[in-house]
Amino acid sequence: MAKTGKIYSGIVIFLSLLLAAILLLHRFIPNNWYNLGSLIETFLPWFGLGVPVLIVLAAVRRRPLAIVCAILPALVWFQMYAALIPDKHDGDGDFRVVAHNVNAENTETEATAATLLAADPDVIVLVELTEDQRMAFGEVLEERYPYSAAYGTVALWSVYPVAESNEVDLNLGWARAFRAAIDIDGEPVAFYVAHLLSVRVNSEGFTSEQRNETAELLGEAIADEELDRVVLAGDLNGTVQDRSLAPITYQLESAQASAGKGFGFTWPADTPMARIDQVLYRGLNATGSGVLDATASDHRPVSADFAF
């Protein structure tokens, strides 16, 4: 029995140290084997579910070393994510952005628009639009949002004038990103709207090469931006922890991390497990961030408030 107990404790200790290492050293997990590093980073917060299991397993045998080792990944997880737990909302700010992947198969245009309008945004960003959807949303939104820009499957509507806009070429052969300069009460803000390519989890692993290429091209466009104030909104098909989005995320901050509460998961809509719909920024102060109620899409909408 004593030998069995040592083996049991050894397994708990090993698993505890392994979990702590994954959480602490995830950046060093290589991507050259099925893109394992990016896959782990996409769902990294969920690794915390292993912590209470390990603590219970360690407590059953009452082995002090096993208990200490089981607590270690809990400390690492808490250090990584404790800042996301409290509500950091700091007022309404000067303007609000709502972004949503509406899903090309979504036929409930009016109901979806109603959910977005209930948040009272100043700028609405929609991605994965069909031509029919774009026209349908335009009919609902144009009276309240007289200014707009649309390229391919991505669009925005604004209560403030759109001074100029142009496609951001992601080398796909069709438009999935653009830049629009919006004059908000005399303050110019560069808005980037994007829907990066999807990733897949299959027999080849976490396939994301094309998504990564579009992230690099979008990152280059943002790096060349001349305006100081920048907002990027849309579906990036990746979390801000995913190293493959570094060309974007090293330049911009997450509104959810700065001014939201919790992880703000957006996908899949019924049981969200990852935040792949983002509002990122620089040159502004994020004063609020959140996730709206589900629509007929497989993504949930996100909102963010900003102040100059």
Concise overview:
InterPro entries: Endo/exonu/phosph_ase_sf (IPR036691), Endo/exonuclease/phosphatase (IPR005135), TDP2-like (IPR051547). With 308 residues, the protein is of the alpha+beta class.
Could you walk me through the main structural features you see in this protein, from its secondary elements to its overall organization?
With 308 residues, the protein is α+β, with helices and mostly antiparallel strands. It has two domains: 2-84, no CATH class; 95-307, Deoxyribonuclease I, Chain A, CATH 3.60.10. 34% of the residues lie in helices and 25% in strands. The chain is built from nine helices and 14 strands. The protein has helices at residues 2-25, 36-42, 50-61, 64-81, 109-117, 131-141, 209-223, 246-249, 255-259, and strands at 95-101, 123-127, 147-151, 154-158, 162-167, 177-184, 187-195, 200-202, 205-207, 230-235, 253-254, 277-282, 285-291, 302-307. It has a six-stranded mixed β-sheet with strand order 3-4-2-1-14-13. Strand 8 and strand 9 form a beta hairpin. Helix 1 (2-25) runs antiparallel to helix 3 (50-61). The protein is elongated. 43% of the residues are buried.
Q: Please tell me the total number of domains.
A: 2
Low-confidence stretches: none
Number of helices: 9
Instruction: Supply the helix-strand structural class.
Output: alpha+beta
- Count the strands? 14
Percentage of residues assigned to helices: 25-40%
Largest sheet: 6 strands, mixed
Name the overall outline.
elongated
What do we call the CATH topology of the largest domain? Answer: Deoxyribonuclease I, Chain A
> Looking at this structure, what is the CATH superfamily of the largest domain?
Endonuclease/exonuclease/phosphatase
Strand order of the largest sheet: 3-4-2-1-14-13
Radius of gyration: 22 Å
The termini sit apart by: 66 Å
Tell me the β content.
25-35%
Mean pLDDT comes to: 92
CATH structural architecture of the largest domain: 4-Layer Sandwich
Q: Which class of the largest domain in CATH terms? A: Alpha Beta
* Secondary-structure element pattern, one letter each: HHHHEHEHEEEEEEEHEHEHEEE
Cofactor: Mg(2+); Mn(2+)
InterPro entries: Endo/exonu/phosph_ase_sf, Endo/exonuclease/phosphatase, TDP2-like
GO molecular function: hydrolase activity; metal ion binding; nuclease activity
Protein name: Vancomycin resistance protein VanJ
